[in-house]
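ENTRY TYPE: protein
WANTED: fold as tokens:
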Amino acid sequence: MTIILKGLRNWFGQALEYTLGNPGEGKFQPPPIGPQPYSDKPQKFHY
């Protein structure tokens, strides 16, 4: 029974680490969502 509980604890720890990420790597920054500021300069063609 103790072998099963140790295996379950190890499995749960790995699953939790995979889900939350490695805290030593820093914060995970998600990609920006929504409208982004316009950064290109439009070329004005006068005919």
